[in-house]
Amino acid sequence: MPDIPRVKFTERETVQNPILKYAVDLKWQYLEPNTTLDLRDGETGIFFLETFKEKLVQLNPWLTSENVEEIVRELLERTRYNIEGNQKVLNYCRGMIPVFSKKKNRELNVRLFDFENPKNNIFQVTDELSFDNGIAWNRFDIVFYINGLPVMLVETKNPEKEEGINEAIEQIKRYHRESPEFMAYPLLFVASNLHDFVYGPTWNIEERYLYHWREGENLEETAKTFFDFKRVLSFLEDYIIFWEESGEVKKIVLATHQIRAVEKIVNRVLEGKKRQGLIWHTQGSGKTLSMIVAAHKLRKAPSLENPTLLIVVDRTELEEQMSRNLSNYGFPAVEVAESKKKLQKLLASDYRGLIVTLIHKFDRMPEKINERKNIIVFVDEAHRTQEGDLAVYMRSALPNAFYFGFTGTPIDKTDIGKGTFLTFGKDDAPNGYLDKYSIADSLADGTTVPINYTLAENKLLVPKDTLEKEFFQLIEDEAITSVEELDKKILDKALRLRNLLKAPSRIKKVAAFVVKHFKENVEPLGFKAFLVGVDREECAFLKEELDKYLPPEYSRVVYTPGHNDEELLKKYHLHENEERGIKKNFLKIDEYPKILIVTSKLLTGFDAPVLYAMYLDKPMNDHSLLQAIARVNRPFERRKETNPKTCGLIIDFIGIFEKLEKALRFDSADIKGVIVNIEEKKEEFAELIKQGKTYLELVGRKIDDKTVEKIVDYFSEREKRIEFLKFYRELESLYEIIAPDVFLRPYLEEYFLLSGILKVIKTHFGPKIPGELWRKTVKLVQNRTGASGFERTLPVYPIDERTIKLIHQDSSPERVKIIKTHRSIKILIDNQGPREPFLYLFREKIEKILEDFDNKQIGTKEALRKLEELIQEINNAREEKEKNRDRRKRFCFLL
């Protein structure tokens, strides 16, 4: 590896070279970039072809030379440059592609890697790997190869760049667009700026599928745990998943907490000493996928001798959903126990595979129906399924099985919580969890977003004495684990409360409030909402009223139909296919419905990232409340037509959130950060506006070209840009949450001016400034466009033989001239690059000059000198290209 003198705070010295060093410490063989050019047969090559062929023969000695050449052709010439091609590559890596062997006279699966014996593979790493497909030229910071195949990219950024990770991810996206021939092969990527170590799957770079690797306290520990031979191979063998949904293939990689839980489960089963465990992975953190992958790994374990696996749920819709998930995953040998009789038959017949069943189908199951020790049972929503005698029947029927309980909520302080601990957690005292991924963990990782709440108008809230007598006193001694239980045990008895909630005059007011709030607060963000009624009748009433204000397609009612329903309830009955279509359309940002009216259905197990607001007109508590409000905590992929989803919002029509300690009977540490009062957000906004006075002094009241130049000059120092961007994004997020509340009226002018400053920064410092103005802010700025002046931009220089002279004649401050020159060259490359691809070769050079200037490694005079030299290089290259074109024309004429 090159021994370069260490310079503080540069991408190469503080991130790229250390990662290479840690990889070499792990015994990855470092290859110089020039060496890889020979191994790849130039910049157009991808594989280390000879290495690949040699390992192919070593791992598959039955292959003939013809077989080897055919596999090479299949991978290099017949692989599509998209997600399907990438899936094909992974299938080859996992030994899932058969080839006919003349020696054996049958088809055998080809192995590209030896997963059982990591040292039987060749692990190589290189940096600054350049790839040229004739249209675009790109250079990848670090590329990891196994057996001659590129399996992983690493993009590194300067640790001082606040936006470094976003910039790195944008580059990975660009590689997919410009170099798809190469990107068809790597299966993972990493983006790191020293502070953060983010990884994700190639070909699916949605924000919600990117994760922080959480093993290790610093870059060295993090890198060494991630790039360990066994860990990288485990990703390739088990933890990268191609998931088919609605006819579309998606690629997913497991997060750190999912991998950790899977491996704890597998190790516990293989060790065989402890036979139960409780996994708390908070709502929205992917526990279903963790369960499926753990089951798949156990199914493949040779020492378990073809085990039987069960996934036990407590609802018909969850049984159907789990069956679909297993199908999407491609899980082999799955049986759904549609009846008690079928479940009993499967268990008695010694079926080896995976069974999906409802807990209710264990009712009256004979004792010791199967006493094998290689039976593993996964119990979904463990806090619900273990109440009553059904769990006793299950454990009596399978007395020697392993039992793993999964839950999306913490253990509560009621008898149910104590029972869950004794059933699953006694081997993992004192906290009771085999693995824990708390709400605070998920918020830190961004796998969920925080939830804000606000109370509806006082006139709509339930009177406090009624709420106390008709709800809180009734739940005092009850352990409620689901919405259905809440309905049966509490709300069916609370007749006065339900009648109060469904009073016609109140229904009209609630509907009017919801419509106004949705149109002003939710729809402008591009998101959708749930309206939760106390029962099915209120849902129908609310729908009738909403239709008076909104087109009927805006909202739909989803509830379970009853045989004896009256005409109003029957009006909103849905056929199974119709309900499926409604749920599918709700997930799409640009489809109707925008509001779903529900009472119990969809309040658990329905993941809708587009869901932002929940209008809660139903008293809830404990698990039912946590599970319901968690519907709004799913992150949403950032798109042009929507804002980033920075939080979910609950509008409480009941008054539950005034007494959270009564409604949520969990340890306070377990639910820390779940919900925040929006009044606190208003205080934060006012305080931030005060902090922005320094920036406002830059602008004054008249905005012209001198103002814009002043802003550009001030923010030419990168540290100041970072500080402002951090400040502004926090302010903007609060504005989007609060608007159009009248609270904002005194602050509108100042907020508008701060938004204008961001617009100037984005225009002049380019795409490295992340994000766009959000919707409500855009509307504010558009309304003020005529008076703003923020649309002005500094003039750019034409890049030709006159440019340097123009720079010298410019009376702007030198720092402003640097920004103008950089922007001028960047615009040239972006506009002319598609017609003159050689210009892309200057892309890295220009960014390096600006980076050195930003890092104060060069001063203003040196930066301008280097930019002028670069302009001269570009002019020379264009001139030489023109001469070559003339020579070709003359040559053709002579012919």
Can you characterise this structure?
With 895 residues, the chain is α/β, with parallel strands linked by helices. The protein folds into 5 domains: 11-247, no CATH class; 254-445, P-loop containing nucleotide triphosphate hydrolases (Rossmann fold, 3-Layer(aba) Sandwich), CATH 3.40.50.300; 451-673, Rossmann fold (3-Layer(aba) Sandwich); 682-788; 803-894, no CATH class. 47% of the residues lie in helices and 14% in strands. Strands 1-4-5-6-7-8-9 form a 7-stranded mixed beta sheet, with helices on both faces. Helix 10 runs parallel beside helix 11 and helix 27 runs antiparallel to helix 30. The longest helix is centred in the C-terminal third of the chain and has 35 residues, at 860-894. The model is unreliable at 1-7 (pLDDT under 50).
